[in-house]
Automatic annotation (TrEMBL):
PANTHER family: THIOESTERASE 1/PROTEASE 1/LYSOPHOSPHOLIPASE L1 (PTHR30383), THIOESTERASE 1_PROTEASE 1_LYSOPHOSPHOLIPASE L1 (PTHR30383:SF24). One of its GO terms (molecular function) is phosphatidylcholine lysophospholipase activity. SUPFAM superfamilies: SGNH hydrolase. This is Arylesterase. Residues 15-176 form the SGNH hydrolase-type esterase domain. CDD domains: Lysophospholipase_L1_like (cd01822). The lineage of its organism: Bacteria, Pseudomonadati, Pseudomonadota, Alphaproteobacteria, Acetobacterales. Pfam families: Lipase_GDSL_2 (PF13472). Gene3D superfamilies: SGNH hydrolase.
Amino acid sequence: MTTGRADAAPVHLMILGDSLTAGYGLPTQDGFQAKLAEALKAKNVDVTLVDAAVSGDTTTDAAARLDWALGGGPIDAAIVVLGGNDALRALDPSLMKHNLSYILDKLQSRHIPVLLSGMIAPSNLGVDYDDRYTAVFTDLGKRPGLIYDPFFLAGLPGHPEYAQADGLHPNAAGVAIEVNRLLPIVLRLVAQAEKAQPKQTKPD
């Protein structure tokens, strides 16, 4: 598959996230971003990934560094995968919603197409917390123009063979499953970015 602009400049795709997209515990070549780049290249899609993932980040941390992340060069599309550390620290879901809304507002105000991939709270935090936490992503996922994926780790929980020793982070096999599942959605995002912000063609 190509995006119909073989002679055009690459789409600059920012990955704004935490350890799940930073490749925590894995060799660089086995991490989410490396495997996503590999999958996109195999589809002849010209994308330059912009690494804005920091292990340990909460949504508060990511919101605080967003201007810095956007200031390093062109950003044509963004994948936002945050909230896991908010749940691990049992932070108030209303704060998470505030931070994610700020991030999405800023990206969308710049006409940057966004894929928001949600998370699920650990069961030990109780039903009330889980309901409020899940509602944050469900509500934000209804934003016009936003591409929404309900759960970044879909297909992995309950399969320890896809997890690292900590039981939280995917191993290389788990990352491969993530990328395979998300690839069609990311291709939609790239196509949306190309339509929204046509690039100048590369010089001969």
